[in-house]
Amino acid sequence: MYHAPVLRIVFAEDNYLVREGTVALLAEAGEVEVVGTAADFDELLAAVGTLQPDAVLTDIRMPPSGTDEGIRAAKQIRAEHPGIGVVVLSQFVEEEYAYDLLKEGAGGLGYLLKERVADVEEVVRALEEVSRGGSVLDPKVVEALVAAKDRMAHSPLGQLTDREREVLSMMAQGMNNAAIAKTLFLTDRAVEKHINSMFHKLGLTEEPDVHRRVMAVLAFLRETT
């Protein structure tokens, strides 16, 4: 009788109780074998390099910084071991992290909310999918990404060209027109043209110049923070 090969995985999570509990749940599934665990970024990369699993399941936040280690690890693992799939777990819907993870290609990558861990079959399916080079996105994260894209599309900033957004970003850093021109290798006249176009798209054509700059920067900071 044919039995599907067991999926070999490495699991990374810095909380000991969560790590051991998840390993126990996965063991009950019978379709995966946790061949190694890790509690931080460096341990995870070392375990993957040594054990060469089929897939990795990792939390986003781990030591040393407790911010985006899981995202950075996923990217590095995919770059160095393209045959290994990675599913990242997040406590909350964080569309900026999901975007960061997938913006250079979604093949072999997954992004799930931690609440899905209780449904072991769903997690196993996700691990199998990424190990085959597919991708998996939590439905709630998809909703958030769509909503974010919709907000951007309906924002006046969504009308700006890439160059205009560059100019606005530098304006937000306090640069004057001459400094922006030097940084972007543009003429002063070209910078003025981009700024006037930007003001027009943001509906700031009737305001004094200093006030227009302030209002444009405020609009930029509201969207990007």
Characterize the structure shown:
With 225 residues, the chain is of the alpha/beta class. Helix content is 54%, strand content 14%. It contains ten helices and six strands. Strands 2-1-3-4-5-6 form a six-stranded parallel beta sheet, sandwiched between helices. Helix 4 packs across helix 6 and helix 7 packs across helix 10. The longest helix is centred in the middle third of the chain and has 16 residues. The chain is elongated, with a radius of gyration of 23 Å.
Compact overview of the structure:
Helices cover 54% and strands 14% of the residues.
Number of strands: 6
Shape: elongated
Average residue pLDDT: 85
| Helical content (DSSP H or I, runs of 4+) | 40-55%
The Rg value, from CA coordinates, equals 23 Å
Q: Which ranges are low-confidence, i.e. pLDDT below 50, for 5 or more consecutive residues?
A: none
What is the H/E order?
A: EHEHEHEHEHEHHHHH
Major beta sheet, strand line-up:
2-1-3-4-5-6
How much of the residues is beta strand, in percent?
5-15%
Structural class: alpha/beta
Biggest beta-sheet profile:
6 strands, parallel
Count every helix, treating DSSP H or I runs of 4 or more residues as helices: 10
Instruction: Tell me the distance between the termini.
Output: 56 Å
